[in-house]
Design a protein that fits this description.
alpha/beta, FAD/NAD(P)-binding domain, D-Amino Acid Oxidase, Chain A, domain 2, seven-stranded mixed beta sheet, 12 helices, 17 strands
Length: 401
Amino acid sequence: MHDLIVVGGGPAGSMCAREAALKGLDVVLIEKSSLPRDKLCGGALSPRISKILDFDISPVIERDMHCAIVYAPSGRKIDIVREDARGYLVKRRDFDYFLVQKAREAGVRIVDDTKVLTVEQLRTSIRVLSPGDSFKGHLLVGADGVNSTVARQVGIRKGWPPERVALCIAADIPLSPDEIDRILTIEGQQGRAAIEMYPWVIEHGYGWCFPKSDEISLGVGYKMKNQVLDIRTAWTEFVDRFEREKEVKLEITNKRAYRVPLGKLDNRITTRRTMLVGDAAGLVSPITGEGLYYAIRSGMLAGQVAYETVKDKNPLHVRTYEQRLKREMKTEFSAANFVSGIAYKSEKKINIVCELAEKDPRMQDLMIDLALGARSISKIRMDLTKRMIRHYPLKALRLLF
């Protein structure tokens, strides 16, 4: 019998499994796809990620990320450069497999191409069933994404309400490095292609372009709330605009729609022997849709709690995972929802923010901090509020009401 079963081989699952294995637990990680597997995602890594990992991720970094271009709905174009807040861009196929290999090196047994069908909660253990096989363990971690089978099977959640989900369409599109530099470089920043953000290119959402070494990740997404928008038309119009303005022709072969859960941390994410991490727990920024930092951090925290639980032989100790996670992240997600609620409420409010950022270097700093995930969103919100009240009180009122 295993000490810990982890379902899902993304960053949250790999880092949870690695953390527990490094502390001496017998860990098996089950992934439904064959590894390495493709994952459609912008692949932006917050600068905070390098602070919590104890190994070098440079082998899978495609580009540094410290420049951003924001296109306001009004037509304004704001160029932002920050030398002291550097994030990274990766291809998720390479990055995720790199983390899986780190888990394997720590002693984790990796079982890929294996779909979890059922979870049985037994009196003194938990069993995971897959086609032709089963896995029994003391504890279970669900790291299996927005449509988590584990969450449904253990009764934590049947699905997400519309207001807690963003709907996206995106594609990874091949381009030569020279072409990427041509269309995405800020003047004076040669060889340092910028990320691009297009707020309100779709109602209650935004479009994005993230450059890698030989491809770009292009996408649009919006907060569903109670409305269903024509995202396919928004995607087509966005691509047409991008091609026209950049004077480039894109070969799009892997366009896909997907959902992203938006974080609040107001619901249960544990049972007696189970913890949810990453997207399965809804740990995604409602401002940018970035979830990699929260996935890795929640996975590491769950691995630590798994070790403590097995060591103490007390399954009730699993509850402390939820308590610690909420203590660490709930304020941040509350702040993110507050800022998101203002920024994505109307096109007019987005234009106000972009107008201020165009004129005020400090507002630019705060904007790129948000885009890169360079600092806690709660701290950014505090600085943003102070700046608005002291220097732009009338515009602050227009944003709030």
